[in-house]
Design a protein that fits this description.
Layout (H helix, E strand, L loop, with lengths): L2 H17 L16 E4 L2 E4 L13 H14 L7 H5 L2 H13 L4 E5 L2 H12 L5 E5 L4 H10 L2 E5 L4 H14 L5 E6 L11 H10 L3 E5 L14 H4 L8 E5 L9 E5 L1 H10 L1 H4 L9
Parallel strand pairs: 4-5, 4-6, 6-7, 7-8
Antiparallel strand pairs: 1-2, 3-9, 8-9
Helix pairs in contact: 5-6
């Protein structure tokens, strides 16, 4: 494809998106994040942010970030497995594991990276992933990347989930089955029926992965999320979350057993082959 043909191709596709009002574009915000933001010299009330607790511009977080940068620098300089694991990473993982009441935790550069890395490490070809239809794109992409057999059930439809689990047990006996869902769904704000999910997981000997991105900081004791609120933390095999929403920072994490975390260190490609998160964040 020549340079001219390439330009024509992109323009044609963009025109098609615009005709359907499906094109995306960026808006520059010229202020810090907060309840009010500034765009093109005008002040707006911000109803679109995930900064639920207003921590993104909190003076305490800014002070802590500055102190960490002064001590450890701006960037990590390498992946975690080479020379990028610094003291703030280890301390953060210890704090997360204690907070989420799990044996261990592992930090990623983003929640998206955590989803891709964890799911593709937990399920491979001939395994089965059963996923809620309204799961975040990162969870869907992680499932596709894994190469596993993917089954999608209608949103929060437990009977259809059970049907998929029965099928997996019958047609793929002996293979790993991973149920993937969210605590609070970003699409419409409702919650997963977690207790019933746990019952199905137990009955069919499946693994359960719960994305707590929109629950952490908002739901449960000390904002620990839906699993803690339902006293089901021990029954969720993989707890995923992000530091970039209610917690006001950046990055993602996986919490679970020590064995799970060791496995991800060795098999999660988005962890292995990515530069470590900045130590100041």
């Amino acid at each position: 494809m020549s340079e001219l043909q390439e330009r024509d191709f992109f323009q044609e596709q963009l025109d098609a998106l615009r005709a359907q009002s499906l094109d995306r574009h960026l808006r520059e915000i010229t202020s810090a994040q907060g309840p009010e933001i500034e765009i093109a010299g005008r002040r707006f009330v911000n109803f679109s942010s995930n900064d639920y607790l207003g921590l993104a511009n909190d003076p305490r977080l800014r002070k802590a970030a500055i102190a960490a940068i002064n001590e450890f620098g701006i960037g990590a300089g390498a992946s975690r497995l080479i020379s990028g694991t610094q003291s703030p990473h280890i301390r953060l993982e210890h704090v997360l594991a204690k907070w989420k009441a799990t044996e261990a935790a592992l930090c990623f550069s983003s929640g998206y990276a955590a989803a891709l890395g964890a799911i593709s490490a937990l399920a491979t070809k001939d395994d089965v992933i059963v996923l809620d239809k309204l799961c975040h794109a990162s969870l869907i992409d992680g499932a596709k990347l894994s190469g596993a057999i993917l089954r999608v059930f209608p949103h929060n439809n437990l009977s259809k989930l059970e049907s998929h689990l029965q099928w997996a047990g019958r047609e793929h006996a002996g293979r790993r089955v991973l149920i993937v869902t969210e605590s609070v769904f970003s699409m419409d704000g409702d919650r997963t029926p977690l207790r019933e999910m746990v019952e199905l997981k137990r009955r069919f000997h499946a693994l359960l992965m719960l994305d707590e991105a929109h629950a952490v900081g908002v739901i449960g004791p000390n904002g620990r999320g839906l699993a803690a609120a339902k006293n089901l933390s021990d029954d969720v095999d993989v707890q995923m979350g992000t530091l970039s929403k209610a917690l006001g920072a950046s990055g993602g994490y996986i919490c679970g057993s020590r064995g799970l975390i060791e496995w991800l260190i060795n098999r999660a490609r988005s962890f292995i082959f990515s530069t470590a998160p900045p130590p100041g964040i």
